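seq:
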Amino acid sequence: MLYQRGIRFLYSRISRIFFKLFFKRYGKNSSIIFPLNLQGMKNISIGNNVYIAYKTYLSSMSLTGNKKPILEIGDGTSIGNFNHIFATEKVVIGRKVLTADKVYISDNLHSYENISIPIIDQKIKQISHVEIGDGSWIGENVCIIGVKIGKNCVIGANSVVTKNIPDYCVAAGSPAKIIKKFNSSINKWERID
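struct:
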């Protein structure tokens, strides 16, 4: 047990030094636990007190012609195991966002229009920027593709979000639909029919 703590402590110290050198910004008290892959670190900003769990893939690469892609993760955010977050233009995750395991977030897609070319050989297609508002919770196996999700939203497990979700909503399904909204006049969550 003592040996494992020592290894974790050593990994933590070495990785912080490494990450501060290569990321655009790497905030205080942030941790990335044994990443699966990191691409375009000079385009990635990590806030303070961010926790990124085991085998997460972070990428901010110029694959669609944008010279300065942006991937930002705000202060106090916690990213679950096996997340895949890919920006070719702009993905911004707000403060105190919580993602479960196996979440996919992207501002791009593979082109598939030309049926005479395998999809793997077609260009990456830029779609809309992704923004996830402060305080939101993203459930397990959720896909977020080119949309904005408001503040303090809940996205149910296994949802595919392809349309914007306003502040203070619960959305679920494939494609995700709003099933609850917070009504500030009565200070209560209400089901949407």
